[in-house]
Amino acid sequence: MAFMLTMVSSTSTGISQSERPDEAQITAALERHSLITGSGAEVISATIQGEALVIDLSEEILPASTYDEGVFTQLQTDLDRDLGINSFYMTTFKVEGLPLESWGRPEPKIEPGADLPEIEQNLRSGPLSGVRIALSPGHGLYWHETYLGWYYQRAEFYGIREDIVNAEIMAYVQTALLNQGATVIQLRELDFTAGTGVTGYPTWYECARQYAIALGLPSSIYDGSDTNYNSDIRARPYMANYYDADILISLHNNGWDGNLRGTETYWDINNNPAQSNALANAVHNSIISTIRAEYDPNWINRNVRATDWSYGEIYFADMPAILLELAFMDNPIDNSYLHDEAFKMLAANAITQGICDYWGVTCEESPSPLSQVLETPFLNPEYGEGMCDTGWHSFTNQRDQPAYLSLNVNNQEQSTHLALWQTVLPLSGEYQVEVFIPDHEPLGWICPEMSINEDTQNAIYEISHADGLSAIPVNQAQFINEWVNLGFFNFTGDTSVSITLSDVTGETFQTTTVSSSALRFTLVHEAYDHQVYFPSTFK
Predict the structure, then answer these.
(1) DSSP reduced 3-state for 413
(2) Which of 146, 375, 516, 530 could form a cystine bridge with 401, CB 3.0-4.6 A?
(3) What CATH number does the domain located at 9-103 have?
């Protein structure tokens, strides 16, 4: 089966301000729409609040004052076609200031999944033991039933996309919460090793609706609205309701005109108002104070904001729920922070601390170590004055660090060169291991004299880890200036970790080069004995 992925935008520098429709443009488009003019309806308001677009229409839009799904589906479809609203906003329609449910739109009653095995509590004791926390990373790939393709919900800005970075941050939140004893209910796939999804891309790239389908959950959870885009929004609170979560945390990153910065947090006055307000303030204040104290003293506080039926992700939840807009994707400074694993981990720990504050418990200190990068390996033989000395060629990679090349050999008996990376990791656990493959020009080798056009297609990285020794082949020739995932491995803290790369490739003797550059370790899960409730275990 062939898969098609259609990206909303492939630009790496962000979308210009003129492409983001504002309230006046949306109002004008609505006032020209035949469903508005034909019914005599009035556009009371079109209000943008964060990523929420709330359109309030007069009662004339409803024939006989009865909800008609086709009317609102057509309005949103046409606004998306003409102004691209779905690329920027999550749209909510109201009539006379009331949600459509007040006019007859059916809302499924999501009962907790009594037919499922009992939720397995995290067996690691901690201050949040017994607390069930639903995590909703915003957006993700979804099937667009009009354009018949898999679409990201948000555009790329400066090399990253909100659909992806939301999940990356929430994976850190999940680890931090598990360390405090919580039971985590993931509303999108947060296991980066879960494989390829129906989109042909990693499962964790996909939206909550697709995740619910993959789990085999009741269709009322993932088909709760008129389009797949809108159903994805509802699938999140519906899943949280189904699994009887105690609180729901939705994470997004904002966008506007490239000039705004900072964090804002939303709660809905129609959903557990006292508790949702308290949760929003606890988490928001923790984020602001933590970032100011440990990362950027001038981090902007955009405040906690009450909404009124604006964000479906939180107002359809049966439990206290909040929606975080951590940073602005389209602002170069905020965006640079979102590239930084240190910032993402710091934000995740701040969110966790805020949850502990809301729950009235004292969190244990459980640091999430930053990604550890080893820029250069030890070389055997040691690097000398040049390739005629010890057979190494040295150059500066795109990280402004030394990198090395050696000629390949066919078998172990011919081997003369070895690169070794060694370190001691701060915590025991599962780490993602990545290798940096730098770009370089075809090389005129002089000892012996020959022209080498590319790196090897079969570099073998031997990784010593807690479960044994793994040999991971990498086609270095197909990568240019990028990190390549070698896999996920368990390592024991305070024990020396070693990874080697020799010149043995199995290819014809001295026809390619073997590139040795930086290596990176990133903690995925700290090691401890526990059982975690992942809905994916219940089919």
Answers:
(1) helix
(2) 375
(3) 3.30.300
Q: Do 105 and 67 form a contact (C-beta atoms < 8 A)?
A: yes
Mean pLDDT of the chain: 88
Q: Which carries the bigger pLDDT value, residue 276 or residue 113? A: 276
Distant-in-sequence, close-in-space partners of 169: CB < 8 Å, separation ≥ 6: 137, 251, 326, 344, 347, 348
Q: Which two tokens stand for residue 213?
A: 């389908």
Give the DSSP letter of residue 454: S
Phi, psi of 349 (to 5 degrees): -65, -35
- 3-state SS, 163-225, equals HHHHHHHHHHHHHHHHHCCCEEEECCCCCCCCCECCCCCEHHHECHHHHHHHHCCCHHHHCCC
| HEC assignment per residue over 29-67 | HHHHCHHHHHHCCCEEEEEEECCEEEEEECHHHCHHHCC
* Cα(416)–Cα(392) distance, integer angstroms: 11
Residue 252 phi, psi (nearest 5): -135, 170
3-state helix, strand, coil in the chain (%, to 5): 30, 30, 40
CA of residue 367 relative to chain centroid, distance: 20
DSSP 319-355: S-EEEEEEEETTSHHHHHHHT-HHHHHHHHHHHHHHH
Q: How far is CA 196 from the centre of its chain?
A: 16
Give the pTM: 0.70
Model pLDDT, residue 195? 85
**What stretch(es) of the chain map to CATH 2.60.120.260?**
372-526
What pLDDT is stored for residue 46 in this prediction?
97
Distance CA 444, CA 453 (A): 9
Quickly state the pLDDT bin for 438 (edges 50, 70, 90): very high
Judged against a pLDDT cut of 50, whether residue 309 lies above it is answered with: yes
Question: Is 80 exceeded by the pLDDT of residue 38?
Answer: yes
Number of C-alpha atoms within 13 angstroms, CB side, residue 478? Answer: 7
End-to-end CA, the chain: 24
Residue of 348, 112, 52 lying closest to 240 (CA atoms): 112
Closest to 535 in 3D by CA, of 235, 257, 202: 235
Q: Are 469 and 499 in contact (CB under 8 A)?
A: no
Average pLDDT for 223-227: 92
What separation in angstroms does the CA of 46 have from each of 56, 190, 304, 362, 441? 6, 35, 21, 43, 54
CB 278 within 8 A of CB 358: yes
User: Which class in CATH covers the domain with range 372-526?
Assistant: mainly beta
Those residues whose C-beta lies under 8 Å from the C-beta of residue 62, and which sit 6 or more positions away, are 68, 71, 95, 103
Question: Could you tell me which residues come within 8 angstroms of residue 129 by beta carbon, excluding any fewer than 6 positions away?
Answer: 121, 122, 181, 182
Grouping H, G, I as helix, E, B as strand and the rest as coil, residue 238 is helix
- What distances in angstroms separate CA 119 from CA 131, 237, 315, one per listed residue? 11, 18, 24
